[in-house]
Amino acid sequence: MDAVIALYSHQNSPRFRWAAKVFFTCAMRVKLVHYNDKESWEKAPGLKVNYCPAECEGSFHISPQGLLWEKEISEQEFYTTDWEGMPIFCQRSIGDLPFDPLAATFYLSSRYEEYLPFIPDSHGRFPAKESFAFANTFLERPLINEWALTVGKLLFGESFELSAHYTHHTTIDIDNLFAYKGKGALRTMGALMKDLSKLNFRRLNERLSVLLGIRRDPFDTFRKQRNWNKKYQVKTTYFMLFSEFGPNDRNVSPYSTDAAVRLRDIADWANVAIHPSYASNGDEKRIATERDSLQEVIRRPIKQSRQHYLKLRTPYTQRTLVDLGITDEHSMGYAELAGFRASIAVPFTFYDVEMDVELPLVLHPFAFMDTTYYLYGEQSAQKAKAEVLKWPSIHKRVGGNMISIWHNRTFAQTEPSTEGWVDLYKAYLDEAEV
């Protein structure tokens, strides 16, 4: 639908302009034109939406709640009620809607609550259970998209739909490119000695067979992934951990020839991005070194990233990435629970609430991660199947960008927890097909 919203407000602010863009342009997929002059607005083409306290005849009225005119960051006392089967907050007693969707969108998608004091988890992350969405039982709903679809029907009629905008993008984190190869002499010798000391002759034999070139490394499942994704014509991005060895960064050596050969091969048929290390969090110089080293190996510029362990500390992580020239960030989600951290299922730009400015960084929210189910939730593939397969239909209804996170080691199925996940991935691709 070639629709245009002519949005009027006698007030203006960076928060208002950004929130309106996220709601109308990103979620509702309509063209938006702002007006602060009432006379110009009245003569303008498009469906007229009035964002003022007073009504204007012949326009759709949204009564402002006030959050978008504030400049400080303060604790917000919100509660939810039900409207059209959806939770709403920022309620209003006048207007054509019982709430202010722009203020509510700003609160959720800017991650306003992450600027306020909270108790971090063991990795310094904002916990899912601390969120307003979890507390009000809508974490698993792309609520902003649902609001946009319902409001769109009120504005343009019941024929208004968003499903045609649905896209699917699978992403794979490479925390460990190989199980045995490319680890360097000291780590390899230590691993061999450990196998011997524990009398783990099965692993010792497997390790030696890989190192001697007799068999393929079990984590090297990339050709299979290419064939699966090619069959469904799925856009794929790999996020590569390319750092020095550390307690939480146990990937192959960035100096490994085997790693370089495999990464160049992957970069020929998929997008390769940086997975900034656990140790680099908050260290701009270290992230730059990792990114530059990976660029040198794959011989391509890198503009996308996802934090290892999803160590996202808003707004400092995002500011660092912008300073490094990263344009697209893919950490907007939780490790321990599936769902929508920003309550939205489409890409949107980052808004720094502290600086009150929109930054040139596009955030790509994901819905779930494989390890959320089999590590955090300790669920088998069979038990997790219904949960995993429900996400595409949720996205299709609201025209979302279906993004999931998988790990190359998952497809190796070398551990009891990963058994059956290859078949589940294929079933997921079938369900998520455009």
Kindly describe this structure.
The protein has 14 helices and 15 strands. It has 434 residues and is α/β, with parallel strands linked by helices. A 5-stranded parallel β-sheet has the order 9-8-7-15-14. The mean pLDDT is 94.
Write the layout of secondary structure elements.
Elements (H helix, E strand, L loop, with lengths): L3 E5 L5 H14 L3 E5 L2 H6 L3 E4 L9 E2 L19 E3 L2 E3 L12 H9 L22 H4 L7 H14 L10 E8 L10 H13 L3 H11 L10 H10 L3 E6 L16 H11 L3 E4 L9 H15 L5 E2 L10 H8 L4 E2 L18 E5 L4 E7 L4 E2 H7 L4 H18 L2 E7 L13 H12 L2
Parallel strand pairs: 1-2, 1-3, 3-4, 7-8, 7-15, 8-9, 10-11, 11-13, 14-15
Antiparallel strand pairs: 5-6, 12-13
Helix pairs in contact: 1-3, 13-14
Low-pLDDT runs of 5+ residues are: none
Percentage of β-strand residues: 5-15%
Question: What's the total helix number?
Answer: 14
First-last Cα distance = 19 Å
Strand sequence of the main sheet, in spatial order? 9-8-7-15-14
CATH architecture of the largest domain: Alpha-Beta Barrel
